[in-house]
Design goal:
alpha+beta
């Protein structure tokens, strides 16, 4: 028997009227949205600095803008923001160790054992990244316990041969790989988006 579409699901997380869900429940539900993982990198007094984000998104093609979110408690973002430019590296599935290090290590130890090369502006590009961007801060918007950073893209490149590499994906609090399925025929895609 088909479920009644008007019935609430058993796993619905409810909150009192006028209030939002509790932070733990909110995080648990939003964790069901898979995201890519990116490293935001820069230099501070000749030392590489970075942080990990799963909130990266494109904003505009003209001008070329992207955004990501950073917690107000971040000690790395003030160091990155202090530079003229910052880098964004899209991590490959094989870079779990680098991602974990950037997410959990503190201070100057974040890049200990992390292989990287310099971009044309001298920013750290993690070896093995699928692609990278050189950006500058266009705007910052306070939003709850985070700040939304909008960045203007100045340079970008994809890695050499990434045909066998897929992205590092974050889903339900864990890191994993993306497995592509065959793309839908063009006419099917056009009809389903109408």
């Amino acid at each position: 028997m088909a479920a009644n579409r008007n019935e609430a699901r058993n796993d619905l997380l409810d909150a009192p009227p006028g209030d939002g869900p509790d932070p733990a429940g909110f995080r648990r539900v939003l964790g069901h949205f898979a995201t890519g993982v990116a490293a935001v990198t820069g230099m501070d007094a000749g030392v590489p600095v970075g942080l990990l984000v799963s909130s990266f998104t494109s904003v505009s093609l003209d001008p070329p803008l992207v955004s990501f979110c950073v917690a107000h408690t971040s000690t790395s973002w003030p160091r990155l923001r202090g530079g003229r430019r910052h880098g964004i590296c899209f991590l490959a599935a094989g870079q779990y160790g680098q991602a974990r290090r950037l997410a959990t290590a503190s201070g100057d130890s974040k890049f200990h054992g992390v292989a990287w090369s310099a971009s044309p502006s001298g920013l750290p590009v993690l070896d093995g990244a699928l692609a990278w961007l050189e950006c500058s801060v266009e705007a910052e918007h306070p939003a709850g316990d985070h700040v939304i950073v909008v960045s203007r893209v100045h340079r970008l490149a994809k890695a050499g041969d990434t045909s066998g590499a897929g992205p590092l994906v974050l889903f339900r609090g864990g890191y994993g790989r993306f497995t592509a399925v065959a793309p839908a025929p063009v006419d099917t895609v056009a009809r389903s988006s109408s």
